[in-house]
Design goal:
- Helix 2 packs antiparallel against helix 4 (67-77).
- The chain has ten helices and ten strands.
- It folds into two domains: 12-77, Chemotaxis Receptor Methyltransferase Cher, domain 1, CATH 1.10.155.10; 89-158 and 190-272, Vaccinia Virus protein VP39 (Rossmann fold), CATH 3.40.50.
- The relative contact order is 0.12.
- It starts with 11 loop residues before the first helix and ends with a strand.
- The protein is α/β, with parallel strands linked by helices.
- It has helices at residues 12-26, 35-49, 54-62, 67-77, 89-98, 118-130, 148-156, 169-175, 191-194, 228-241, and strands spanning 106-112, 138-145, 158-160, 176-180, 186-189, 197-201, 214-219, 242-250, 264-267, 270-272.
- The strands form two sheets. The protein has a seven-stranded mixed β-sheet with strand order 6-2-1-7-8-10-9.
- The protein binds S-adenosylmethionine.
- The site of S-adenosylmethionine has 25 residues, from loops.
């Protein structure tokens, strides 16, 4: 009897087919060490669909008539870990070096791979703190991700108290409203911050509808999932969408070394066009 608890085995050849599909659709490179993780995550998808084994799942995926499952499968492959003010040096640099130099009152920022929204909201908080009379400025932060599940969370902008531990108490009281106390305290980002952030689904491997140019692009802790050639292509596409003098922020465990690019290195994980 299938109790729903017995793990379904993902064979090596099936793992390789899945890996090819994920690479083709999302640029994500799954190395061999990920087989067990993929097995565990996709077993949940199998259960949800009532399928018995991975052959049936592959057939379902490759039939061409279940686009929704392709999205769900790719979402199951990605890690959405994020936090407010993650890699805080970037926010210090934004506040201390970039904002004081800005000449125009129009700022365009892109958070590419925004997950559940902490990154674009952190950026908007820094802008609100640093800019006097912000209502006279034209500010727009585009926040995109592959995952519709994460985007739905990001749009709500509701976070548990423990997710706000990197946000100083004074900023919590200024920019968040407690919307629930039981069983845990939850806070929603205030409209004064949310109005600057626009969420949209975008697969970085596909065509980009926006033309830019952006002052800043944050693409942090996303490129680690891509191989070097894919990273190189992406970084060059970012270059084209930035203003001259614009900045690209990547994650601290990522680096542009090894990919040919035209950016000038500024400091760890910050590059300038
Ligand atoms: C680890 S999170 C990083 C979140 C945030 N940038 C940060 O640094 O905290 C990586 C995000 O990249 C997204 N992602 C992965 N591949 C993508 C792709 N091909 N196109 C768009 N987003 C992608 C995932 O859905 C995930 O939300």
């Amino acid at each position: 009897m299938d109790t729903g608890l017995t793990p379904v085995k993902l064979e090596k050849e099936q793992f390789e087919r899945i890996s090819q599909l994920v690479y083709h659709l999302a640029g994500i490179h799954l190395h061999a060490g990920k087989q067990e993780l993929v097995n565990a995550r996709l077993t949940k998808r199998l259960r949800a669909l009532g399928l018995k084994n991975f052959d049936a799942y592959m057939e379902y995926l490759e039939s061409g008539s279940h686009q929704g499952e392709l999205v769900a499968m790719i979402e199951a492959m990605t890690t959405n870990k994020t936090s407010f003010f993650r890699e805080s040096q970037h926010f210090d640099y934004l506040r201390e070096r970039i904002l004081p130099e800005l000449k125009a009152r129009r700022i365009r920022i892109w958070s590419a791979g925004c997950s559940s929204g902490e990154e674009p909201y952190s950026i908007a908080i820094v802008l609100n703190e640093a800019i006097q009379n912000i209502s006279l400025w034209d500010i727009s932060i585009l926040a995109t991700d592959l995952s519709t599940r994460m985007l739905a969370r990001a749009r709500k902008g509701v976070y548990e108290i423990n997710q706000l531990r990197e946000v100083p108490a004074v900023l919590v009281s200024k920019y968040f409203t407690c919307v629930e106390t039981n069983p845990v305290r939850r806070y929603q980002v205030n409209e004064s911050i949310r109005r600057h952030v626009h969420f949209a689904r975008l697969n970085l491997m596909e065509a980009w509808p926006m033309r830019g140019p952006f002052d800043l692009i944050f693409c942090r802790n996303v490129m680690i999932y891509f191989d070097k050639p894919t990273q190189g292509r992406l970084v060059n596409r970012f270059w084209k969408l930035l203003k001259p003098g614009g900045y690209l922020f990547v994650g601290h465990s990522e680096s542009l070394t090894g990919s040919p690019h035209k950016f000038r290195y500024v400091q760890p994980a910050i590059y300038m066009k």
